[in-house]
Design brief:
PPR_P_subfamily, PPR_rpt, globular, 45 helices, 67% helix, TPR-like_helical_dom_sf, mainly alpha, 862 residues
Length: 862
């Protein structure tokens, strides 16, 4: 005590403790809290002192039992605040404020709560100091206070509200700042604290939408590929934040009572089912906003006017082809886009109605109104699809997804020539039982193409017995082998480089007496030429013509007789040109003319390709004259060949001229009524990247054109870009990292192993072993077989970085794949496997185990 009438902080704390001696537990204060307060004050008051310091009331009320908080309130009247500064003063203020609470949830306060009070006091002090950034306050809150939100605490919630309000108000000033949390994170914490206000949320979301629209997607607005890619990466990050923000908004408060609950619930958002009758009724009444509001039933419709405007703008943004290039993003936005699109399709807003919705956001208003004429046809198309039975579509999609998975697994096994993987995939398709159940057999009958694929795979790995087993399984369940099945066997022989096997299959086919068709003859002719027997291939083509002529002369039916057409001629022509048999190819065309076979566009394209590459301009002109005379129009392949040749001479042009040429070529293709495909674009990118950074502007133009059409780059194009960045002087691994992040390639299942292996090698070559190792581990976990050449680069890089434990793990992974090569039944594969320089380097580093050494020494002893 200092003087009469003034109570020090320690005495106040003592009052809190002793004044809570009532038997009603909800008013009790914590004994631990009182002890801590005493220690802070350093003074202990007696009961008599406490009584003496309590002022008397001038108008005493009748005696009755009063709760302790009333007595404490009286005790504090007229008390002067003790002068102090720093955290202790704030802590005392918190204690005083806490004493005013009338509904404490527990009778005792554990030591952890004392720490919470201290943290809250610290946060209040930080917020009060203008020199402490909001980001610093938030990091303190996130690490110390946020994990406790499941524990009721009014003081904490008041301080948290003050902080999050400040965070939410500052975030729109710089949406791309990494100092403050993302918009999604802000909304998540506000929801979990019960602070999410739909109107304030919608305002922040609309400002985010406008910021995204301000990021130009035109490559001409950027000076380099990197600056363009970085801008697009930032834009994708913001789009992901927008998606996450809507997911959080969809989460009901009741399932977000603890730290992290909202984020977990948002991982699988579920929009409520919409009643079409209600949607139609609202549309007729001009109240489509009520239907959009019904997507978020946890809020009252009158709270969601701004949110419905934001939903319309978000729909326009997500339906923009430029923002639909990322498959993962399409999947994430599909439920929202479909639901809002279905609502808007009933009665789309007029263009003049859009302006008032976004009058405070001019850039967003301009974007939405400029795209509205494109959105309206999309809405009309969506309206037509609404009558499709959703249940049937879902069942079909589920079955297709299963069969697609089998197809992908078999394709991967075939690429790696892993007989074990093919067998495993077959078991997953057919099942473990010798005879499938009737239900499974019914599903298998609809998968004749997969049976053919398995036959081709086994024939391609020189396993004819297993191919026949698959054939017998087809027959067992009632699937009749067709000419496509025989074609698969021929294709398998071609893959296995087995001309003798191909001839044997053909003899069996003829003996079976099955009526042949053009594709099967084409497969035979092309296969023989590709396997290095062009004379046999041309003889087969001549046999085809002879059998047909004999049938025409005799009038008798023949199962082997098929009218010769341009398809087998084209196949033979392509094979001959690949073998550089130009003279024979010309003779073939003369033969076709004598047979009355007219060339088609594929014929001319096949002839054009080598001529363009060799720069034979006169020959190219003659071919186009022939095309014109015969009425054959150029297609996308024709333009691709010409573009490839033209771009090869662009290296000396200025960047502006390069962009002009590329844009002109793409425009000419479209003017000809031809839709460029990804092969065309890949050719363009490949040729341009051969010129190095000089072609940066033109590459940007091609990429922007692709994304502007809503197309996604192929794995091949991504591989070319990665190789370009790594081949710079000096190499630019950060550009590769940005590319992977901006296009979310780790989530794109269409990105093949070739891309990831090239990136791993590139990281190894620049010494970034951490990134290389992370990608390697990801590939290994996915079950993808990694080539020894990539493992070699990774092994050398790890040893160079003295990461011997990781290097030893790489050797174990290589050992894991040994059986796949040794069981593939390809001559001397096992020997080649152990003779690879990877094993020699591993042996040099002393990383071979006993189980490795025997096989390694046996293979290399000869």
């Amino acid at each position: 005590m200092r003087h009469r009438g003034v109570v020090c902080s320690a005495c106040r704390s003592k009052l809190l403790i002793q004044g809570s001696g009532t038997p009603r537990p909800r008013w009790q204060a914590s004994r631990d809290l009182g002890t801590a307060a005493q220690a802070a004050g350093g003074t202990e008051t007696t009961d008599s002192t406490r009584k003496a310091s309590r002022p008397r009331s001038k108008n005493p009320a009748p005696a009755r039992h009063q709760p302790p908080w009333v007595e404490r309130q009286r005790a504090r009247r007229g008390i002067d605040e003790v002068e102090s500064s720093g955290p202790l003063a704030v802590f005392r203020k918190v204690l005083d404020a806490q004493a005013k609470e009338t509904d404490r949830p527990t009778s005792t306060t554990p030591p952890a709560n004392l720490e919470l009070y201290k943290d809250v006091a610290k946060l209040e002090e930080m917020l009060a100091q203008s020199n402490i950034p909001t980001s610093t306050c938030f990091r303190f809150f996130e690490s110390r206070i946020y994990p406790t939100i499941s524990q009721p605490n009014r003081i904490r919630d008041r301080v948290s509200k003050r902080l999050m309000t400040r965070v939410a108000s500052e975030k729109p000033n710089d949406f791309e700042s990494g100092d403050l949390p993302s918009v999604t994170r802000i909304s998540q914490i506000q929801l979990e604290l019960g602070l999410l206000d739909p109107k304030a949320w919608a305002t922040m979301t609309t400002r985010l939408l406008q910021h995204i629209c301000r990021i130009s997607t035109a490559p001409g607005d950027y000076t380099t590929i990197e600056s363009y890619e970085n801008a697009m990466a930032r834009r994708v990050t913001l789009l992901q934040d927008l998606i996450g923000n809507w997911k959080i908004f969809n989460v009901p408060r009741i399932v977000a009572l603890r730290a992290g609950d909202a984020a977990k619930a948002a991982q699988e958002p579920r929009l409520p089912s919409l009643d079409m009758k209600t949607i139609s009724w609202n549309s007729k009444k001009g109240k489509s906003h009520l239907s959009i509001a019904a997507l978020f039933p946890q809020y009252a419709p009158n709270q969601l006017q701004t949110a419905t405007y934001a939903a319309i703008a978000t729909f326009v943004l997500f339906s923009d082809p430029y923002n639909r290039t990322d498959r993962v993003m399409r999947q994430e936005t599909a439920p929202f886009v479909d639901a809002v699109g279905m609502i808007l399709s009933k009665r789309p807003p007029r263009k003049d109605q859009l302006g008032p919705m976004f009058e405070d956001y001019p850039d967003l208003s301009q974007y939405v109104t400029s795209r509205w004429s494109t959105v309206l046809p999309q809405l009309a198309g969506q309206s037509k699809l609404q009558g499709v039975d959703q249940k049937i579509r879902a069942n079909h999609a589920a079955r297709a997804q299963t069969m697609d998975g089998i197809h992908r697994q078999l394709g991967q096994a075939l690429k790696t020539r892993s007989l074990e993987a093919v067998d495993r995939t077959w078991k997953g398709f057919w099942g473990e039982a010798t005879t499938p159940t009737p239900e499974r057999a019914g599903r298998l009958r609809n998968s004749a193409e997969l049976f053919n694929y398995f036959i081709m795979a086994y024939m391609g790995m020189r396993q004819p017995k297993r191919a026949i087993d698959v054939w017998n399984c087809m027959v067992q369940i009632g699937v009749v082998p067709t000419l496509k099945t025989w074609n698969s066997m021929i294709d398998g022989c071609k893959r296995a480089r087995n001309p003798a096997g191909l001839k044997a299959v053909w003899q069996q086919l003829i003996a079976a007496g099955i009526a042949l068709d053009t594709p099967i003859w084409t497969a035979r002719i092309a296969g023989l030429i590709e396997l290095g027997e062009p004379e046999a291939g041309l003889a087969a083509l001549d046999e085809m013509a002879r059998l047909w002529n004999e049938r025409a002369a005799s009038g008798k039916d023949s199962s082997s007789a098929v009218r010769p057409s341009i398809e087998p001629v084209n196949a033979a022509l392509a094979g001959l040109l690949r073998l550089d048999r130009v003279a024979v190819a010309k003779s073939l065309l003369a033969w076709a003319a004598r047979q009355g076979i007219q060339p088609d566009i594929f014929t001319f394209n096949t002839l054009l390709r080598p001529m363009v590459r060799q720069g034979l301009s006169d020959e190219v002109a003659n071919i186009f004259t022939m095309m014109k005379n015969q009425g054959v129009e150029a297609d996308v392949a024709t333009f691709t060949i010409l573009i490839e040749g033209a771009l090869g001479d662009m290296g000396d042009q200025s960047p502006e001229r390069q962009v002009e040429m590329v844009t002109s070529m793409l425009r000419d293709v479209e003017a000809a009524g031809v839709e460029a495909n990804m092969i065309t674009y890949a050719k363009m990118v490949h040729v341009l990247l051969q010129q190095g950074d000089r072609a940066g502007e033109s590459v940007k133009a091609v990429l922007a054109h692709i994304w502007g059409k809503g197309l996604e780059l192929t794995s091949h194009i991504y591989t070319m870009l990665a190789e370009h960045y790594f081949s710079r002087d000096p190499p630019d691994p950060q550009a590769v990292t940005t590319l992977i992040a901006s296009r979310r390639l780790q989530e794109n299942r269409d990105i093949d192993r070739v891309f990831w292996e090239r990136v791993i090698k590139g990281y190894c070559q620049v010494g970034d072993v951490d990134r290389a190792l992370r990608l390697f581990e990801r590939l290994d976990r996915s079950g993808s077989r990694i080539t020894l050449s990539t493992l070699y680069e990774l092994l050398v890089a790890l040893v160079r970085a003295q990461r011997m434990e990781a290097a030893s793990a790489i050797v174990d992974v290589a050992w894991k794949f040994r059986d796949q090569l040794e069981q593939a039944d390809v001559a001397d594969d096992g020997g080649r496997f152990w003779k690879h320089r990877f094993w020699h380097r591993a042996e040099q580093y002393g990383l071979l185990r006993e189980c490795h050494l025997a096989s390694f020494q046996a293979a290399n002893s000869a």
